[in-house]
Amino acid sequence: MNFLLSGLTSVTVPQLIMYLVGFLLIYLAIKKGYEPSLLLPMGFGAILVNLPLSGVIDQTLPGIGNTHGIIQWLFESGIEASEALPLLLFIGIGAMIDFGPLLSNPIMMLFGAAAQFGIFLTISVAVLLGFDLRDAASIGIIGAADGPTSILVSQILKSNYIGPIAVAAYSYMALVPLVQPFAIRLVTTKKERMIRMPYNPVSVSKRIRIIFPIAVTMIAGFVAPQSVSLVGFLMFGNLLRECGVLHSLSDAAQNILANLVTLLLGITVSFSMRAEAFVTWQTLVILVLGLVAFVFDTIGGVLFAKLINLFRKNKINPMIGAAGISAFPMSARVVQKMSIKEDPTNHLLMHAIGANVSGQIASVLAGGIVLNLLTTLL
Description:
The protein is mostly helical. The protein is built from 21 helices and 2 strands. A hairpin with a 3-residue loop joins strand 1 and strand 2 (about 65). The longest helix has 29 residues, at about 280-310.
């Protein structure tokens, strides 16, 4: 009978903490609707990998020898060995994105670049706090507001904190409607938030829509070669959407592929949420730094819009700059909601969408640039 209780009696305090973390992620996914497709698998996986002698991770059993666990195998094959899962997810994301609002108003591309400021600020702060440069760069990428990019970069750099980084990235993506309004109000006045922007879209031809993903991939390859896998898979998915001859593949990428990979990615990342690696003071610091990255990404985009306004006759509503982060389409919705609150007749959604999709490109480019810089420095 003792063997039936051995599992219960061998539970450690850090494992109990991880059960609570798992329950919290599941609660946020189901009750609050925060990124449920990822937080729910991550939460449940966090419980699975922290059960004593869990069969989902590799272990050595008396009289049997080495056994292989499915979650550890998925992690080692799909993330550690090849980064396949995050990259495959980019194909689905690319197939979902309509770059039309950006192509009809190209100036919005600037806000995608400006809203990556928090990444590089956070890297600097993390280094000053004593984190290794590889770990600091991985932590900074939380500010990309792009979970797959955060996972991919932290894995390529062999960071020791993939679990906390993934949890922070997806948690703050889900909390964009709470974090961004606070950051926007810090650096804008009511008068600025009420600036009106007429929307006069320019028609974008099918030819331009097809050329765009190809051109972006080639430019990224020349400027930041390490970003090619990130940008290339994203743009390949978009090319499936825009080419007009692969409707079934585009639909499969948007739905079947994206949903399946999201499911596997969420539960696979939980391997790095084992108690001995997750329950540390560094995890709390990473969560704080992740919040700093998100806030300063938002502030960077807003301040850049205010800078541009110094030289423009037709002013840009500074809130548009906040939509330059990669959290699509939540950030654009935040801007629209805030503009309607200030003036019910002021609709900024399409402008914000343009900035938001530029953030998708900018975030993966930022990941590639960080990898390039680290390759040079190390």
